[in-house]
């Protein structure tokens, strides 16, 4: 029985076009990912690519900034990274919680203390997007440091967004290679069209709720293991194999999992039929950061796993696979892998929220009813 359309959507709305956007374009058949027409391989190029700050500007304005515009944005983000004292107090008072739980709660609280909390104009919403992008990085880094027993570190306005995150987390200013590697990872994760969390953010924004509420919804969606967390699962697998294990042990482990028909995290993608273009860059940085930090074994193990899964299952590595070993070599704790996704994707979430506000229509799809035939009689209670 269908009351809406004879055309049935696939489970999970796969391949269903649910709206228009000028932010992100994906061609899964050709392995293309672009932000506002710029190919991700150009944006993430080690030498000629752009910074995360430039990527934020691009997603918000649909064009790359000039030098003056970039300087202004860098100044705004630097100011936003200093967390308000009520947020720091709340962070210290939270009960034991995972990083995503803490991020969800503290992001909601940021909505109460934002300078434009009571203002709902395009200009105010843009200022909120900029502030929130700076604040989320500080939230995750400070929470991660406190979780390890360290004291909060004030951001350094002379450092860029990526370098500041690593500094606030570890207490050590990162090398140029480490800062660029993390910067590129932020660029690669900044947006990905109408993924689950972005869709949640746009649905919420379509009700004209505030920007912070829309982002909190996105964080809740990202927390789900079918969206975020795959790179943490990859690293747990590598640790289980053992850092001192030879490649023979790696092959034995992988073949055993395949024989038991168990999933190997970090492979395959809902959209891409080729290699995930983001994995191309993270593979290179996993290798270079591993060598730089004296931990080359994680890349070697990952490379062997990739070879086996590719040959046995025909699956390509996705964005999560090599980010796992790269994050580990950078000294990032496992519990921060998914929150770091939010540190980057906040740029895309806010860009989509602003785009939704600019040309809004309430998002209200229908379902194909498959319940009991209509009408059903309502029997008296003693006859049921």
Structural topology:
Blueprint: E1 24-27, E2 32-35, E3 38-39, H1 40-43, H2 52-61, H3 67-80, H4 85-93, H5 99-113, H6 122-147, H7 161-170, H8 176-189, H9 196-206, H10 211-223, H11 230-241, H12 247-259, H13 277-292, H14 296-313, H15 319-329, H16 337-358
Helix pairs in contact: 2-16, 3-6, 4-5, 5-6, 5-10, 6-7, 6-16, 7-8, 8-13, 8-15, 8-16, 9-10, 9-16, 10-16, 11-15, 12-14, 13-14, 13-15
- Helix percentage: 55-70%
Based on secondary structure, the structural category is mainly alpha
CATH fold descriptor of the largest domain: Citrate Synthase, domain 1
What's the CATH class of the largest domain, please?
Answer: Mainly Alpha
The CATH homologous superfamily of the largest domain is named: Citrate Synthase, domain 1
Q: Examine the secondary-structure arrangement and name the CATH architecture of the largest domain.
A: Orthogonal Bundle
Whole-number mean pLDDT: 94
Output the strand order for the largest sheet.
Answer: 1-2-3
Which stretches are poorly predicted, pLDDT < 50 over at least 5 residues? none
Structure characterization notes:
This protein has 384 residues and is mainly α. It folds into two domains: 71-226 and 337-358, Orthogonal Bundle (Citrate Synthase, domain 1), CATH 1.10.580; 230-329, Orthogonal Bundle (Cytochrome p450-Terp, domain 2), CATH 1.10.230. The chain is built from 16 helices and three strands. Strands 1-2-3 form a three-stranded antiparallel beta sheet. β1 (24-27) and β2 form a beta hairpin. α10 (211-223) packs across α16 (337-358). The longest helix has 26 residues, at 122-147. It is globular and about 70 Å long. It starts with 23 loop residues before the first strand and ends in a 26-residue tail after the last helix. 42% of the residues are buried. The mean pLDDT is 94.
